[in-house]
Specification:
96 residues; alpha+beta; three-stranded mixed β-sheet
């Protein structure tokens, strides 16, 4: 798959989005009982399906990776989906 070459795009016009689905899963697992304690079995099942669907969407977005104005990448240190500009991304990459 890989990245497709962008035609003369100004790097300042691209959004870089870093995320870590494991962090989302861990946070949801930690809070699951508190969130679902007053739900019926049907509500709990619907909530669980929604969580699974959102995590699947995030993972699919990560696999898809690019379009003309956004690049998605794995960032092990973020707790939420985080937008980076090219300068933020360079600063982070310099720490690797």
């Amino acid at each position: 798959m890989g990245f497709k070459r962008l035609n003369k795009t100004d790097m300042e016009d691209i959004s870089f989005w870093g995320f870590n689905t494991k962090t989302f899963k861990d946070a949801l697992d930690k809070e699951n009982n508190r969130i679902t304690k007053d739900m019926t079995d049907t509500e709990r099942a619907a909530y669980s399906l929604g969580v699974k669907n959102i995590l699947s969407l995030l993972e699919q977005t990560f696999v898809a990776g690019t379009n003309n104005s956004s690049l998605f990448f794995y960032h092990p240190d973020v707790e939420r989906i985080t937008e980076f500009d090219v300068y933020d991304l360079k600063d982070w990459m310099d720490t690797l």
